[in-house]
Amino acid sequence: MGRPTASEFKRILTPKTFQEGGPGAQSYMRELIGEVLNPVLARNAPCYMSKPMLHGTQTEPEARRFYSMERDVDVANGGFCTTDDGRLGASPDGVIGLRRLEVGDTIEGALELKCPMPTQQLLYLASPTKVPALYRWQCHGHLIVTGAAWVDFMSYCVGCKPLLVRVEPGPDTERLRVALKRFWGRYVEELAKQKP
User: Fold this and answer.
1) What is the reported pTM?
2) What pLDDT shows up at residue 105?
3) How far is Cα 186 from Cα 182, in angstroms, rounded to an integer?
4) CATH number of domain containing 75
5) Is 167 helix (H, G, I), strand (E, B) or coil?
6) Is residue 71 part of a domain?
7) pLDDT of 73 over the 80 cut
8) Is residue 1 one of the residues assigned to a domain?
9) How confident is the model over 159-187, as a mean pLDDT?
10) Containing domain of residue 96, as a range?
């Protein structure tokens, strides 16, 4: 609650234009502040699941098994990870190369799975070497939060070819790191103003 997470980093730094601080960032900041000011209300907010979301949830275990066989690796549950300072969070769909099961775990890589409907999968496959723009910052966010050496993004849809792209730290990772630092500074200032 009240912590920016990788799945929403696309609201802090837009996927296509790399713009910071737009309406999405302002809206996200208000949501985070609302979670801090009234965590009970935020936890009990209604949860909506569309047909594609339900499909993704139901298909994810199969996608994880496919990835494990394709890469010949064991995939552990990603759980919820935070940066050492606790400011940022991420929930990778899997981690690879977990060294020990304590605070301060180290991992080799992380996995981000998407299980879209066939029409969306075909769209993703039109650019087979790229992570779809909507998920770019989520993958780079996993790198920042977990400290993993890489993130494998896989889009999996039964009956279609899978899309599997490895993301490693680079200029986009650093661009996101700077944007997150600025967002955090603005967030802390705004939160201090809103607390009763």
Assistant:
1) 0.91
2) 61
3) 6
4) 3.90.320.10
5) strand
6) yes
7) yes
8) no
9) 97
10) 6-194
For 168, the token pair is 């490693």
SS3 153: strand
Beta-sheet strands, E only, within 115-174: 150-155, 163-167
* Residue 6 pLDDT greater than 90, yes or no: yes
pLDDT average, residue stretch 188-194: 95
Count the domains in the chain: 1
Q: What is the pLDDT of residues 87-137, one digit of tens each?
A: 999 999 999 986 655 555 668 999 999 999 999 999 999 999 999 999 999
| DSSP label of 5 | B
Tokens read off for 71:
């890469």
Q: Are 109 and 97 in contact (CB under 8 A)?
A: yes
Give the list of residues 6+ apart from residue 139 with CB closer than 8 angstroms, or none.
Answer: 112, 131, 151, 153, 167
Domain contains 96? yes
Q: What is the distance between the terminal CA atoms of the chain, rounded to a whole angstrom?
A: 18
